[in-house]
């Protein structure tokens, strides 16, 4: 597969007299293959917006390299800009314009053929409301219009910062369907989001950033598998044997996390054969020993050390990289 987006060792430090020095990106890496819907995840203040703005030439990096569609940027930005659609900050639209007027204006400013306006209105599901004024639109409709404006150029790479922000569940589902359609049509989509359940459903692959560094990347299923917490579900042929199984496992040092009517949840099991042997020694027979799927949210919380801690409020920038998780502060709560 070829990379549509490559970032290596990206560095960005903000310096201001008032706020001092901030290392927003500390050698950040990211790679997105063609045709993927790629989730870009990180806690508040971890460097997502800085990365996207740097990529689009809006911020000058202090080091590292970036390439879009195989061309080094920012040097080749003028050549690749026509193939990149991006919504990095909430776009402002004229409230008295209709969606069609808005897109017509953008199309003529960007040398885009007029017929493309009807196509993108159809694509984002705004066709039937295209002639109403933007000021009458819901947040979800404004988001669609923003996506439509980014699609006008029929880009090869679409970058969306928080596209599902503020959408209701129906709106999120429609956004998900739209992303899938775009990917099926061959477009590569990078989307940053805080809605991890959605990312897990929408995205093929992810990059997780914490404190300006990549802490995980890969296909969603692989990232989930790599960070499986070693939690397994155990069922026995006879449910009446569960208490005896729980006792035997506990005596043998296996952590029985929770006991349920028809199964046990065990934690920290790295060798399932150990469990099988302990139970067989007691004459107890398994009917199921299956890893319990971890979700992206728990992987994110583990890697960025941002899991809530009762009574504490996590402050912005206090996420921890995987390699520093043991020493970095692990304040809880969802700050900002
Ligand atoms: N113009 C700026 N001047 C100084 N510091 C900045 C500036 N922009 C961002 N930062 C700092 O750089 C770090 C990364 O910020 P950035 O906005 O890239 O994070 P983010 O992951 O997009 O966060 P959020 O999810 O809250 O939008 C933060 O510490 C932030 O305070």
From TrEMBL:
Annotated Pfam families: ABC_tran
Ranges of residues in domain ABC transporter: 5-236
UniProt GO MF annotations: ATP binding
UniProt region (Disordered), positions on chain: 313-336
Keywords assigned by UniProt, alphabetized: ATP-binding, Nucleotide-binding, Transport
Family that this chain belongs to: Belongs to the ABC transporter superfamily.
UniProt-listed PANTHER family: ABC TRANSPORTER, ATP-BINDING PROTEIN
Protein name: ATP-binding cassette domain-containing protein
Organism: Micromonospora echinofusca
């Amino acid at each position: 597969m070829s990379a549509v987006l490559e970032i290596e060792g990206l560095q960005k430090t903000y310096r201001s007299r008032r706020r001092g020095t901030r290392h927003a990106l500390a050698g950040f890496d990211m790679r997105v293959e063609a045709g993927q819907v790629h989730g870009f995840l990180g806690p508040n203040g971890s460097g997502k917006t800085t990365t996207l703005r740097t990529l689009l030439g809006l911020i000058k990096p202090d080091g590292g390299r970036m390439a879009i569609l195989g061309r080094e940027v920012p040097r080749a930005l003028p050549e690749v800009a026509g193939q990149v659609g991006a919504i990095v900050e909430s776009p402002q639209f004229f409230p008295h314009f209709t969606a069609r007027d808005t897109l017509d204006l953008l199309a003529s400013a960007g040398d885009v053929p007029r017929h493309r306006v009807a196509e993108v209105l159809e694509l984002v599901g705004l066709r039937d409301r295209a002639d109403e004024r933007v000021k009458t639109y819901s947040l979800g409709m404004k988001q669609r219009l923003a996506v439509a404006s980014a699609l006008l150029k029929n880009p090869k790479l679409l970058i969306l910062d928080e596209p599902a922000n503020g959408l209701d569940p129906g709106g999120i589902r429609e956004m998900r369907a739209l992303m899938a359609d775009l990917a099926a049509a061959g477009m590569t989509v990078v989307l940053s989001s805080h809605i991890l359940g959605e990312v897990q459903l929408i995205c093929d692959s992810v990059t997780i950033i914490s404190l300006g560094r990549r802490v995980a990347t890969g296909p969603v299923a692989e990232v989930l598998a790599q960070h499986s917490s070693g939690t397994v579900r155990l069922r026995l042929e006879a449910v009446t044997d569960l208490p005896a199984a729980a006792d035997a496992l506990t005596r043998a040092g296996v952590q029985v996390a929770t006991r349920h009517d028809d199964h046990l949840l065990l934690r920290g099991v790295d060798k399932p054969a150990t469990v099988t042997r302990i139970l067989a020694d007691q004459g107890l027979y398994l009917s199921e020993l299956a890893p319990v799927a971890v979700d992206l949210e728990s992987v994110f919380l583990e890697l960025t050390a941002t899991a809530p801690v009762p009574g504490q409020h996590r402050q912005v920038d206090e996420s921890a990289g995987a390699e520093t998780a043991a020493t970095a502060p692990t304040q809880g709560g969802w700050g900002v």
